[in-house]
Design a protein that fits this description.
2 domains, mainly alpha, 71% helix, Tetracycline Repressor, domain 2, homotetramer, elongated, 207 residues, Arc Repressor Mutant, subunit A, DNA-binding
Chain lengths: 207, 207, 207, 207
DNA sequence: GATGAATGAGTTTTCATTCAT
DNA sequence: GATGAATGAAAACTCATTCAT
């Protein structure tokens, strides 16, 4: 509702901000935080350097804003995926599919995102990540609730703690996405979510 | 064999090199590649800056050497773990245990290692990682062979491609190690490797 | 006369100008020329930056106008003090009193004023001060005339050239004002002008 | 003694430092702190900018060192002048002469020095001056002791507090030096110190 | 006429790397 | 062979000024 009430001026500002963030995203994913200069970002975005500093108080602020915005979008999409089914198994299927499509659509950000959630955020002094990490943590707990509910309702066996299962599933998805990222042709992200889920669902052991 | 033939001079050189790498490792893990200067490394290692450049042609070379050396140690230990049993399940147990102990003993490097294998190596221009990645890839194939053999020998069900299973197992271990890294107390890495392996071994589904 | 003929428009303009100068004065005395930005001045004066530039063609012009205006007020008050008595000694008493009260009432400007008349006007490129200095020089000559007249009328001994005496008296007043500026409590500016004048009037030597 | 024990390396360093300070002094006195860039100083001193930063941790540090060094030299010379006579009047004569010669020999610094002791040190954030001011204050007290002793020994009349007399004498000297600074030809600093001292010594009044 | 968004030259500072001693 | 002083390119950031609305 209120989003519509933006004045032309405000809409213009928002558009500029998006252009700056887009340019920064491109450059950061290409070269990494420390190998991109503010001048480069300004140039790519086709703004003067001073204008960049009108929108973001410094380089770190720009980076933070970028990461936070993307993380928000991802978590929103994934959380929504978990809500769009009643059946726990279906929720997980939705999640695996959503994770794939969201990430594949946003390939350039993935590396940045991983650098901040898991992996080493050496890009930036410190403390930046805490907010992102926390958000990620919260999502893992939401995912764990699906496993917990499935176990309570006797649909799943309790082969591990729900949180551990959430971590396991998420990390497997990430791993597949990395394979895809590095070589999309020989390692496509599975269309059928069950290919991933079966790693958890079907026991490996023949007994 | 030939390793033993090092002259005193050569042994001394090697020792110096190790000291430099150790100092660099400490600093890089504390502050990240871009927040560490060559001067700092030289000072911590108690060598002159010029001497550092006698051993490594530039900062990137130093970093690469460091990461490569550590990655070698890790992969050696993990590969050895896979060889120290005949039974496939036992191999995997060894692997999960070895991964845990090696990483936990080398906590400071883990972040750097992850940044380079999985995750985003933005630290360095580009191309650095290719060698490390390749080495990692090779290891995953070795791990995959264990699954393949287990499947061929009908000990494991083929719930996914062996390579995918390798990726899945490794990523779950990584995920558990991250949890431990962030909060060792509430997320200890399981003593019993079956806790991790069961996620693959026991199917989740009740049917 | 012609001052009264200002149209409402003109009076309004003058008021705005005064507000801008007042804001600038506050900021310059607080932080010094180079540590104050035009934006800051505009903000404090509650005008848009563009409006500021309608009134003053650049930062230096604003500063010059400010200093000139204040210097005018000071010199006017001091010149008037010299005129308000017939007796030379009384003139000097008036001057010492006026200098004290004018400066103390305008404490914030004093430092700026000193920086420009005596002391180092490093604030601004160069040449700014010439006008101010000249005005100050003119005043010193006016003050020297009082000494000259006193000497001619045999009221004063000619212990030095009139101009030198003027310089001496003025510098002693300044010195006392500095003492007061730095620590008003332990160094009050003397109520009784003779305390300062006696330094010239009574010879120090016992003979 | 120990000054002689400087190694060639140390002497070389000291010489470089002096060259840098000399270049900085020239530029600061020509254009003022804020109108001089570190690049300019480096260029004038014929060093690379990085070398400048090896000697001074930042621009402010360079400025402080410069001012402090000069202030030290001045105060040393003036204090020594006060010690080189037993008779109070002779001490003051020495002081007036020393002040003249020291300042005239160091004309370029005078403005900077005044800016920091009396006058408006807006050049630098804050706190810089406190040290210089304190040193100046100490000197004034030393000068006041001469007046005090002269008064106690009945050589001087107590026409004002000793500290006030010190302030007065110093400010008169400063004023004469300013006249000289602005126009050396028409306002030479008096060869004969009594010309200045008589302003205090001989009473102005004919009675 | 007033506004304030946009500009970009210019500033301080860091640090990888070289090379004379 | 080791040293560390010297280098200078390049980075982040500021702010006086302009000009389209």
């Amino acid at each position: 509702m209120k989003d519509k009430k933006l004045s032309r001026r405000e809409r213009e500002k928002l558009r500029q901000r998006q252009e700056m963030l887009a340019a920064a995203l491109e450059l950061f994913s290409e070269k990494g935080y420390h190998n991109v200069s503010m001048h480069e970002i300004a140039e790519r975005a086709e703004f003067a350097i001073g204008t960049l500093y009108k929108f973001f108080k410094n380089k770190e602020d720009l980076y933070k804003s970028l990461i936070k915005e993307q993380a928000d979008r991802f978590h929103e999409a994934l959380t929504k995926a978990l809500e769009e089914a009643d059946d726990e198994r279906e929720k997980l299927r939705n999640y695996v599919k959503a994770k794939g499509s969201v990430f594949i659509e946003n390939a350039p950000v993935i590396r940045l995102y991983f650098a901040e959630t898991r992996g080493a955020s050496f890009n930036i002094k410190a403390g930046l990540d805490s907010e992102i990490r926390e958000r990620y943590e919260r999502f893992l707990h939401t995912l764990a609730l699906v496993f917990e509910s499935g176990i309570k309702r006797k649909r799943f066996q309790k082969i591990a703690e729900p949180y551990q299962l959430a971590v396991a599933l998420d990390s497997i998805c990430n791993a597949f996405l990395f394979l895809w990222l590095e070589d999309p042709k020989s390692h496509p992200y599975p269309e059928d979510p069950d290919i991933i889920l079966n790693i958890l669902f079907k026991g490996l052991l023949n007994d």
